[in-house]
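Predicting holo structure, iron/sulfur cluster bound.
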Amino acid sequence: MPVRDVFGRPLGSLRLSVTDRCNLRCGYCMPEEHYVWLPRESLLTFEELARLSTVFASLGADRIRLTGGEPLLRRDLDSLVRQLASIGGVQDLALTTNGMLLAAHAASLRDAGLQRVTVSLDTLRPDRFAALTRSAHHGDVLAGIAAAVDAGLPLKLNTVVMRGVNDDELGELLGFARDVGAEVRFIEYMDVGGATGWRPEVVVSRGDMLAQLGASMGTIHPVADDHPGAPADRFQLDDGTVFGIIASTTAPFCRDCDRSRVTADGTWYLCLYADEGLDLRAPLRDGAGDDELAVLIAEHWRRRTDRGAEERASLADRTPLYQVAGLRADPRREMHTRGG
Ligand code: SAM
Ligand code: SF4
Ligand code: SF4
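Done. Tokens:
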């Protein structure tokens, strides 16, 4: 039986950030010129990540997602995937990537036991991609998507929708996803750490997205929810195309949240918005046994009361979670460090 928090939410989905480094600079995640990076010696080794994952799995974490930063910047990621895939109790092993390096790695990741991949794709237009990410390599992302399809990896696309930036592309992105056999998930722009330029006016709500898609794509039908912890509400067009919307900003779903995150330096966060995390690297490196780690993790989860997005949504005057000084004070507050 999974361990449960104060609100009865089970420990379920574990997100492992394997690096805080990234080869893009998406404006909603890394808008600044300079960053404070985690010291390299503080990063957990693959063996440490696998050991922690085994302990988490014994407490109910049955889904693992590798993220970052850009996880494919971590060398030999397939060897971590191989270790994680062999852990009993892990039923789902996924990767979230910006796709830039995926073309070279999709087949080996699949061979190592990766079960599915999510690629972030906010636009189909190279010039817009350049403005959004400060990179000219849009073609590499598309090649990464093609490689994931060729490798037979089930594929999702993540699109952060921003008013006046890419909200005129929803129909085209839906069509692209359909053509490559992927499911697109439109994500409301979130006021997470790192989003120092966040403003409520730029958020396109789930309601606005559905209205826009309904006008251009025809009737939209809700799809029954078969997993209450899943963040996306799923919908279907008359032609059978399924897509998701993650309404974390305007309609948060904290009551069902079974997700937690481990940063690349082994700090465990119970919420995307949490200010403080629990240091798991120190006990790991100080020789704690699996049983001791399990007690530490279970006790911490049992005390969990986090519902960050719901608290943010109830604020009368909503401004960015942190400004630069707050992020510099603790780089783990950054979305690219904590993992999306
Ligand atoms: N670099 C990888 C990528 O971009 O897919 C993995 C890490 S990234 C932090 C994970 C996800 O967080 C991405 O899909 C990204 O779009 C999302 N994300 C980052 N900042 C966000 C924000 N302010 N609002 C909503 N989603 C955000
Ligand atoms: Fe973009 Fe992901 Fe890098 Fe953040 S971590 S800048 S979302 S690619
Ligand atoms: Fe879970 Fe925190 Fe996100 Fe709410 S805000 S869904 S508690 S991670």
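The domain at 13-338 is CATH 3.20.20.70 (TIM Barrel).
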